[in-house]
Amino acid sequence: MKKLAFLLLTVLAFFSCNTTQDKFIGLQLWSVRDDMKKAPEETIVKVGEIGYSFVEAAGYADGKFYGIEPADFKALVEKNNMVFLSSHTGQNMPDSANWENTMAWWDTCIDAHVAAGVKYIVQPFMGSAGYDSIAGLKAYCDYFNAVGEKCNEKGIRFGYHNHSGEFAELEGEVIYDYMLQNTDPDKVMFQLDLYWIKEGGGDPVAYFNKYPGRFELYHVKDKTELSADGEMDFVPAFENAEKAGMKYYIVEVEEYNFEPIVSVEKSYEYLVNAPFAK
User: Fold this and answer.
1) Of the residues 3, 41, 116, 226, which has the fewest C-beta atoms closer than 10 A?
2) Does 278 reside within a domain?
3) DSSP secondary structure string for all residues of 49-65
């Protein structure tokens, strides 16, 4: 009976404690890009000390992450109590002469991400062909479907990250809508950058209603560190997270009022205490 009573008290204490520090908040390492170039190991230590739960890389090249072998980078992240969940990388759409070489690049890239334990690969750009004509945009969608199929074969989810330009019209079509309509949901998910959609004149909730389940990742971003500028209202996107299909949210800071590591710490503190961020 004493053991049972002790267990019950332990469970009650667990559920009655303040769980805000248990939020699963990620950081896009582009936010500390210069630090990652100079001292990746020390920077990962600092990011872990802040309290982030996972990282999204922006430093894949030649089979390595920030010059570190995939398994070693995974171990570094995990040693600092985080998960290496996601990664930004990609290639522009090749022409027919370069298709096989580009697909071979993707094979190497995907294998490196598998070795690092990554769950998501996100391409954060398109070349000019995707913005110049519907024919070029359709070719990009077909290309992304092909890359997504390759990722699926290795257990990785492929996605696309927007900026503001995707909300412009092209031959009577909104580029972002066309991409959502012409990529296979089983092969391509979307990482919605909440700042850039606002800058492009789009409404996240309208997209969630029109294309439910397509937006598995959020980039939570303001002009500088979160809440500093008062430009962003993140509440509607988080209130509609289930409809969006959002599984994970990731802080990104591109401009700063402080040193980058301080800015990402302030952004973390804002989100960890924000009641809307679950």
Assistant:
1) 3
2) no
3) HHT--EEEE--EETTEE
Please classify residue 75 by burial: count the beta carbons closer than 10 Å to its beta carbon, then call 0-12 exposed, 13-18 middle and 19+ buried: middle
The enclosing H or E element of 135 equals helix 134-153
Q: Considering the entire predicted model, what is its pTM?
A: 0.92
The secondary structure of residue 251, as a DSSP letter, is: E
- Euclidean distance between CA atoms 105 and 128, whole angstroms: 21
- Asked if the structure places residue 112 within a domain, the reply is yes
Calculate the alpha carbon distances from 83 to 18, 24, 165, 188 in Å. 23, 10, 31, 22
Phi-psi region of 101 (alpha: psi -120 to 50; beta: other; left: phi over 0): alpha
Q: Is residue 208 part of a domain?
A: yes
Going by their DSSP bridges, the two strands 25-28 and 217-220 should be labelled as unpaired
Please write the tens of the pLDDT for every residue from 172-214.
Answer: 999 999 999 999 999 999 999 999 999 999 999 999 999 999 9
| Domain enclosing residue 226, as ranges | 22-272
Looking up residue 180, the CATH number of its domain turns out to be 3.20.20.150
The answer to the question of residue 17 being in a domain is no
The owner of tokens 């299909």 is 245
**Whether 194 contacts 163, CB under 8 Å:** no
Contact 204, 191 (CB under 8 A): no
